[in-house]
Design a protein that fits this description.
Rossmann fold, about 190 residues, globular, alpha/beta, about 20% strand, single chain, five-stranded parallel β-sheet
């Protein structure tokens, strides 16, 4: 973390299936904001068409643990057994070197850790789904995971929903168009446009 430009950090967190990725992708298309996506690192295997260095930095479990020991992460978490996710410090440096603001699509624990490390520079937004039942429907529609994995995500969602009040703002994603506009307004406000 050694760059002159200290941009803003926009954290979007939510249970899987809440729509945070759709919101983040929409915000990245709004060039006036000068946002760059923070690519997370993970120890899991790539899914479907995921590409290393685009969707995630795919790192072996051994290398991930070495990077933890070497304090190379801004935040990290073992989300599921031997399934680590984290934000490399070098990733934020890379984005700030471009003189851009960082936007994260990240789990709630990681999002709150970033907010704690950069309280003044970070806007932490929780994306709330209409209901846990709706989450289950959305996850099943993806067809990327087994029933067991979906049930694990649903169990985790209940815990994650309880963290919503710890975030700066909550977007209720009942209607995507409204949620996208709300997200734009929050970013605009935080950048002092």
């Amino acid at each position: 973390m050694n760059t002159d430009f200290k941009g803003k950090l926009f954290v979007f967190s939510a249970p899987s299936g809440s729509g945070k990725t759709t919101i983040v992708r929409h915000l990245l298309k709004q060039e006036r904001f000068g946002l760059e996506f923070s690519i997370s690192a993970t120890s899991r295997e790539p899914r479907n068409q995921e590409k290393d260095g685009v969707d995630y930095y795919f790192i072996s479990l051994k290398d991930f643990k070495t990077k933890i020991k070497n304090d190379e992460f801004l935040e990290w978490e073992e989300v599921y057994r031997d399934n680590f996710y984290g934000t490399l410090k070098a990733e934020v440096d890379r984005i700030w070197a471009l003189k851009k603001h960082v936007i994260f699509d990240i789990d709630v624990v990681g999002g709150l850790r970033i907010k704690k490390k950069f309280p003044e520079q970070t806007l932490a937004v929780f994306v709330k789904p209409p209901s846990v039942d709706e989450l289950k429907i959305r996850l099943k529609k993806r067809s990327t995971e087994s029933e067991d994995k979906i049930n694990m995500r649903i169990a985790k969602a209940s815990i994650e929903l309880a963290t919503a009040p710890q975030f700066d703002k909550i977007i209720k994603n009942y209607d995507l168009e409204i949620a996208l506009k709300e997200a734009e307004n929050l970013v605009e406000e935080f950048l002092d446009f």
